[in-house]
């Protein structure tokens, strides 16, 4: 287990690739370590600025020495210290090791996940949720999280088998929206069925079979929009418990839309 020891006034300079923090970042590139330690990594000025805006306190931030004079970086250092972040300055060589991109902006951070499960979600005041059934592309997952936040959804719920929303690609695709909307992960179908039975949330599945055009139904009360795997769609088990099935009519013999595009069309219509 990795523990974040936060000291806001820490001004260490790291030049060794064998430093424990550098090894920690390498470990967190693997899902099993992110899950075990309840941590994830993010990279880039804009994403770290989002963590500042939302006053995330448990953060370890790595900054390359060659970008410390930039105004936005100086503001991040100032605000990070106010939030009691652990700020570590690193050499350019170390930053290149830390970075998951070809053209690094010179800033990487370790952030603690929020602990959210189905039991913590509200379901009494017209809440709107999104459920992803084994959506496997992390770019799609991140984009859908961003769309859900933009359309005022109350949470995104991911089934077992979905891409990890805390992977670097998903974090980049969400553009920081993972900080702005609750995300529940690794939910089994049995857990979902139990939750539905306890809450009576109205399930709206997306399907081409026995479905109505998405513009032809009206919704009220608490409901959840369900989107399926890129190749196979929603599993039959989940379709069986859906209260209503909808689809997006397409022209020019186009068979289907990318799941993140389909999600955007439907969520913006019902937002």
UniProtKB/TrEMBL annotation:
GO process annotations (BP): methylation; RNA processing
This protein's UniProt keywords: Methyltransferase, Transferase
Record-given protein name: TrmH family RNA methyltransferase
Family (UniProt): Belongs to the class IV-like SAM-binding methyltransferase superfamily. RNA methyltransferase TrmH family.
CDD domains given in the database record: SpoU-like_rRNA-MTase
GO MF annotations, alphabetized: RNA binding; tRNA (guanine(18)-2'-O)-methyltransferase activity
Entries under SMART domains matching the protein: SpoU_sub_bind
Keyword check for Transferase: yes
Pfam families, A to Z: MRM3-like_sub_bind (PF22435), SpoU_methylase (PF00588)
Coiled-coil intervals, chain numbering: none
EC identifiers of the protein: 2.1.1.34
Organism lineage string: Bacteria, Bacillati, Bacillota, Negativicutes, Veillonellales
């Amino acid at each position: 287990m990795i523990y974040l020891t936060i000291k806001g006034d820490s001004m260490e300079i790291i030049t060794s690739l064998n430093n424990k923090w550098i090894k920690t970042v390498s470990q967190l590139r693997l899902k099993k370590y992110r899950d075990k330690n309840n941590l994830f990594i993010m990279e880039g000025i804009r994403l770290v600025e989002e963590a500042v805006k939302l006053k995330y306190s448990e953060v370890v931030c790595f900054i390359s020495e060659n970008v410390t004079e930039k105004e936005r970086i100086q503001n991040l250092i100032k605000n990070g210290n106010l939030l009691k972040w652990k700020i570590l300055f690193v050499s350019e060589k170390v930053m290149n090791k830390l970075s998951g991109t070809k053209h690094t902006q010179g800033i990487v951070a370790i952030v603690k996940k929020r602990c959210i499960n189905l039991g913590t979600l509200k379901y009494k005041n017209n809440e709107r949720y999104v459920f992803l059934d084994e959506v496997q592309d992390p770019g799609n997952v991140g984009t859908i999280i961003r769309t859900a936040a933009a359309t005022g959804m109350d949470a995104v719920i991911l089934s077992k088998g979905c891409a990890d929303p805390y992977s670097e690609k998903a974090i980049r695709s969400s553009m920081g929206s993972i900080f702005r909307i609750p995300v529940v992960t690794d939910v089994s179908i049995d857990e979902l069925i139990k939750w539905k039975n306890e809450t009576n949330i109205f399930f709206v599945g997306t399907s081409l079979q026995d479905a109505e055009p998405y513009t032809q139904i009206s919704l009220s009360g608490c409901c959840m929009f369900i989107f399926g795997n890129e190749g196979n769609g929603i599993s039959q088990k989940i379709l069986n418990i859906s209260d209503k099935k909808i689809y997006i009519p397409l022209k020019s013999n186009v068979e289907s839309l990318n799941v993140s595009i389909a999600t955007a069309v439907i969520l913006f219509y019902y937002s």
